[in-house]
Each structure stands twice: as C-alpha cells, then as structure tokens.
Amino acid sequence: MAVSIAHLGPAGTNAEAAALLYTHWLEQTTGESALLCPYPSIAQSLRAASQGQTNLAVVPVENSVEGSVTATMDALWQLDKLQIQRALTLPISHALMSWASTIDTLKTIYSHPQALGQCQTWLERFLPAAQLIPTNSTTEALQHLADNPTVGAIASERAARLYNLPILACPINDHPDNCTRFWVLSLQPSPGGNHTSLAFSVRDMPGALVKPLQVFADRGINMSRIESRPTKRLLGSASKQELGDYLFFIDLQADTQQPSIQSALDELAHCTEILKVFGSYDVLPIKHQAIADV
C-alpha cells in the first residue's frame, strides 16, 4: 500500500518538488511507493497528517533569505502530536511568467508571500510600480494569468513546464544560493538523528528566557536556530492579545537519545510553561541530479 504524503498544492509548488524528492528517497531505501496529496494550505497539509488522513506531510520550514515559514510554525504548535521524521533542503529558483511580450506591460504580480519576498530586490528594480498580490501557493498564482498581458506570476520553472506557460525572466530570486528547508512529519515517533526541534512558552517575568537557554549552555549543546512567535492566545478579562506574549522555537544540533539531551529536556520542563518536543531527525542528502529530475 502506497504511503500518502500531504503537501501544499496544486501541482508545481516547491513543496510538491520536495515531496517528490522524498518519495524518490523512500523508494530507493525502503522500496515503498508514495501517493502525493495536494492541499490548499500548509496548515491543511499538516492537519491532514495529524488527523491520519495521510501518512506524512512535507512542509517548508525555513528559507535562507526570508527566514522561517510562520504558517508552519504556528500550525505545528497547535498540532503538537506530529513528529519530524526527516529534513531536506531544496534549492529554490523563481521565474516570472506571463502572456505579456515584455515585462513593461505588467501591472500586477501574483505569488506566495515567501516567493515575493525572495524576489523583492528584483521586483523593485524592474517592476517598481507593479502591485504585488499574495496567494496561498506559487502554483495558485498561475490561475490569474489567463490571457491578460498586464498580469504576471512568480513560480518555478517546473511549474511553467507543467502548465505550458511562457517565462519572461529566470531566475529572478535575489540570491543565487536561495534554498528552503522542509520537514517530513507524521504521527509516528521520531526516528532519532543529529538534529532536534522543540518549542516552549515561558511565563512573562524577568529572566524567563535566560533560564531555558542556560540549560543548553551549561551542557555545551549548540543551538542552530531560535525564533519567537506570538502565542496568539487571549489574555486578561478583556480577552485581548498583548505584545510580549511569545513562544520560542529552537533547533539543536543533538539527539534526544543522548543522556545530556534527556537531562536538559527534564530540566527545561521545569523552567518553561509549556514544552513541546517535535523529535530528532537527520537531514537527507539531496543530489543535484535528483533535483533536476523532479
């Protein structure tokens, strides 16, 4: 029976490309086949895996230019039963597509917010007056093209091939080494590995963050990433959100199976309000030829 994998759709997104790469790795290492299941949003992709509608979800976590994908972070905090199975990093190249003959006629550009951000400098240089409109995915942006020569969309070259769309410029991302890290998640226990991801909230008091971070410093555990996100919970009798109420996501270069990490997590649980460990995992080696074949 094929392994079902949820991802941000429709077909042609970078999330689908990452899911395809993971599928190839799965077939080569275990012999299992996979069925890709596109969803309209990252949150819905994660929810499908958390509710058992699919076996896995492949979602973007962090881009080298635009930073963390907040939709993934926020949804994962809510759907805390999911565990990270693997990670993979995908080089990202963006193309500008349109039925226009030249970019001079373009007045509106559609794409996912991450793609718009990764092409910000190029857009400011060549299309400074264009209106930028965010969409749920880069592929969803393509439906706005129709035959309108004033509209453009930013997506992958692969998407252009899939939908037989003309490319006006490529690559247009601001940095040549643009890449995005993806996580593969499921309800299965994490397999262990050299990387661990977790999140916690702390009580709003002086030194509240210092104590959790000191837990790792005392044991010589290296943190490769730390980021704060609003908790989005309602506070006080007025039922309002307040600035300063945050949770923290942390990546460690360590495995929870190590005694020092287990000790750190035990201590961390006592100096945080809520602690969620998303598992330990390895990063899959992705060959450039495999990327070209997707």
What does this entry show, briefly?
Helices cover 29% and strands 31% of the residues.
Give the helix/strand layout.
Elements: E1 3-8, H1 14-30, E2 34-39, H2 42-50, E3 56-63, E4 67-68, H3 70-78, E5 83-91, E6 95-97, E7 108-111, H4 113-118, H5 120-126, E8 131-134, H6 138-141, E9 151-155, H7 157-163, E10 167-169, E11 179-186, E12 195-201, H8 210-218, E13 223-230, E14 246-252, H9 259-270, E15 274-283, H10 288-293
Parallel strand pairs: 1-2, 1-3, 5-15, 7-8, 7-9
Antiparallel strand pairs: 3-4, 3-11, 5-11, 6-9, 6-10, 12-14, 12-15, 13-14
Helix pairs in contact: 2-3, 8-9
User: What is the CATH topology assignment of the largest domain?
Assistant: D-Maltodextrin-Binding Protein, domain 2
Helix fraction, binned, reads 25-40%
Task: Give the beta-strand count.
Answer: 15
Number of domains: 3
Count of alpha and pi helical runs: 10
Oligomer: single chain
Secondary-structure content class: alpha/beta
Q: Report the portion of residues in β strands.
A: 25-35%
Largest sheet: 10 strands, mixed
- N-end to C-end Cα span: 23 Å
**Unreliable stretches, pLDDT < 50, 5 or more residues?**
none
Explain this structure to me?
The chain is of the alpha/beta class. It folds into three domains: 3-91 and 180-189 and 283-293, D-Maltodextrin-Binding Protein, domain 2 (3-Layer(aba) Sandwich); 95-169, Periplasmic binding protein-like II (D-Maltodextrin-Binding Protein, domain 2); 195-281, Alpha-Beta Plaits (2-Layer Sandwich). The protein is built from ten helices and 15 strands. Strands 1, 2, 3, 4, 5, 11, 12, 13, 14 and 15 form a ten-stranded mixed beta sheet that branches. Strand 3 and strand 4 (67-68) form a beta hairpin. Helix 2 (42-50) packs parallel to helix 3 (70-78) and helix 8 (210-218) runs antiparallel to helix 9. It is globular. The mean pLDDT is 91.
